[in-house]
Design brief:
single chain; seven-stranded mixed sheet
Length: about 475
Amino acid sequence: MPEQFKLFIDGQWVETSETQDVIDKYTQKTYATVFTAGEKQVDQAISSAEAAFRYNQLSPYERYEILKKVSELLVENKEELAQTISREAGKPIKQARSEIDRSSQTFEVAAEEAKRITGEGVPVEAAPGSENRMAFTIRVPVGVVGAISPFNFPLNLVSHKVAPAIAAGNAVVLKPASATPITSLKLAELFEQAGLPKGLFNVVVGSGSVVGQQMMEDERIQLYTFTGSAKVGLKLKQTTGLNKLILELGNNSPVIVDKEADVEQAANNIAQKGFAFAGQVCISVQRVYVHEEIRDTFKDKLLEAIKSLKVGDPSDPDTDVGPMIAESEAERAEQWINEAVDNGATVLTGGRRKGPVLQPTVVDNVKKDMKVVCEEIFAPVISLISFSDLDECITEVNESPYGLQGGIFTQNLDTAFYAAKKVEVGGLMINDSSQYRVDLMPYGGVKDSGSGKEGPKYSIEEMTNERLIVLNLKNG
């Protein structure tokens, strides 16, 4: 019988009248069921979070201790959690294990940052008439944080929402992706073991149209942190009014391979990072702009590097590319590839699909208005685009409505700095692909890729409010 998982509300494991199946993304068979929340459970979760925030405040050091303990428990339970991610997300097991390591680091950094939340002195005495006054700021938690997370990093992207929120002194209501809810419920078990007071972390599972919508409309939530599509991010912004938002939305990452690049380094890097987790990464390489002088050499080396990738069963420790999150998503990507081919593009490798598994694909001779180029494909598909003039290339790169991260390969320092100033993204990687990320850095986009920053230190700033304190001194 499939294992059954309950919701986590106010420190209790809760059953409801409805359940949903969780599918093994490679076998396409049900391997677990999860109770789903209705209006009553969502209200209970938000109520418990609000009460816990008001009456269960932890000191910065207590927050540090709990978050550090969760970090340690993640390592202790690494294999179980990795197997869960591999099954419910279809992530190759070696990449799932890496996600546990990164999540442990995210919690560790957040734990340390819980002890470093500071304000600053404000020299109000420098203003005429305020000579007897002194002022400083403090940072205070916002209250209840509503976290809505995606399927592609079911632990680490949850960690980037939950760990900084707790570190800042907030309470959290989490709605994980419906396709990958079990990892979040297992994280709740670790919080329980670490001694987090009840109500400070709640997990409600259900659809965006029911659970997500109710969370969006509840005025008791002071801040929303969301990773997902630009369409849903816009709806969240329109629905939540003046509430604070951290939005990490869509992208179609550009990477420029300059004529002065180390071509072999660029090809190997893009082959490895462009297809990780079947391209279902917000900063996965999608548009590769190659200088025409090195185009043929780069193309040959890229295709050679792709040959070494193993595609198939995510439970195999040698697998690099597993299934997509759903067969329907693989079919969509395949359709976009076929549309491009029908309009003159050429498939250099891949393009074949078996169920939810799409072979790593490189598309050449593309036009900038093709879906594989101008939209977010979120699949193991890379498009090659030639350029001869760097300014024209950057202009085309910037035509995209997205701007999360990009990359440029070049040995010319002037070119690197020029691109750093001109490419419209939240982060530009030099001599690396767009997919570089470590968990302590500021991470976030511009334009339709969102607003606000992840990375514990930077999220804590978003998840606190600055309060000014002014002292009026008799004998100042």
